[in-house]
Amino acid sequence: MKLNIALLAGDGIGPEVIDQAVKVSDAVAAKYGHEITWAPALTGAAAIDAVGEPYPDETHDICAAADAVLFGAIGHPRFDNDPSAKVRPEQGLLKMRKKLGLFANVRPTFTFPSLIDKSPLKRERIEGTDLIILRELTGGVYFGERGRKDDGNTAFDTMTYQRFEIQRLAKKGFEMAMKRGKKLCCVDKANVLESSRLWRETVQAMEKEYPEVEVSYEFVDAVAMRLVQWPKDYDVIITANLFGDILTDEASVISGSMGLMPSSSLGSEVSLYEPIHGSYPQAAGKNIANPLATILSAAMLFEDKNLTEEAQAIRDVVNKSLAEGIVTEDLAEGGKAYKTSEVGDWLAKNI
User: Of the listed 26, 67, 130, 245, which one is catalytic?
Assistant: First the structure.
């Protein structure tokens, strides 16, 4: 198979972890007889510095023409610490999601056998956890009407949803549940929010189309508690943009490290694959960042292209590296800490 993949390294540790994902992907392609063409493009603070725009039109054209997008991270502290900044790296991420129609963020949460005791949660709570959170990505409070009034002393952000936005995300959720444990949980705040009541009635109306799926409805505050108490109770969770943003970061601690969890953002034309962690500017350029989340995101890319053997090869070699202690400093715990590039080299060689 020939694959044309847009490569958006972004900011901070993004370029370093992306380099390792490219190494591993190229090794898989060589082993299984595929050909990957990488198309680099600017985004985030790097793009602002170069052209004054966090998601330039040229970058969008490269992404739109690709078979998939592999993305690193966005963000820089000089923008975080400047409330008056008119252009921010994160604006590029929101613009990219909107323009590419990336409406469903897929965040798996699972445990690694060799790292289960590194989790802050007890082994008996998390062992066997395997869930997916689908976060709606292009609607809700992040895209609703916002502003200031009363001479700037009052601020507002509006959570707006249209039924079709909920339907298309829920459809993905039902389809995933059918391939997994046939359990779907819709997470909302329907006791307070009108937009959540639309979520609930929309999903309820879709239940009859998937009679084999057991559907439950829970308030987001309850799920925030239950997710760390009984994560094994969940299979597929669907939820709104803001709630998903918070719950997925909470769920990431189950595995023991944010540097381990991959994700994808699905669209109608092209999909994007990225680690769930941020740009981690404190580690940028030091060759110490954990590249495994980005590499596992590449595995999700192969999986979605129906290259299941290739995806499994990546997952297997990642598990092997963890079991043998070929890890960066965040997982070394007093043992030898390998450099980011050394982990990438080891994985590629072992594939």
Answer: 245
